[in-house]
Prior knowledge:
Elements: H1 2-19, E1 24-26, E2 29-31, E3 35-43, E4 50-56, E5 62-67, E6 73-79, E7 82-92, E8 97-105, E9 112-114, E10 116-121, E11 126-128, E12 136-140
Parallel strand pairs: 2-12
Antiparallel strand pairs: 1-3, 3-8, 4-7, 4-10, 5-8, 6-7, 9-12, 10-11
Amino acid sequence: xxxxxxxxxxxxxxxxxxxxxxxxxxxxxxxxxxxxxxxxxxxxxxxxxxxxxxxxxxxxxxxxxxxxxxxxxxxxxxxxxxxxxxxxxxxxxxxxxxxxxxxxxxxxxxxxxxxxxxxxxxxxxxxxxxxxxxxxxxxxxxxx
Length: 144
């Protein structure tokens, strides 16, 4: 029983580190056809600083505005007049995280948005967080 308790304590102490171990987009649920503020949490993993995050915007999403913390910059790629990629240049030291935000209008006919997320690190490695649960927003029908 003593060993089980120690294992539970050890596991629960690791959960917060796991939660902050990768890039996330929130909220995980929104409504079709509405404007939504999205928050992207960018942590630094291990001993290496994060230097950039590339967000691929799902088809049908119309980015209306981008917020960036003071001291950071971003670039966008457009197809016609729509933003298809946002790349934030950041410096997130190990053990820290920042949040960046944007406002977008959700598509009316789609039930799920799969965000593309590529995190770039100072050692030139890239982590691709695309397609996982933390990179998906489920859209519910708009009752109007």
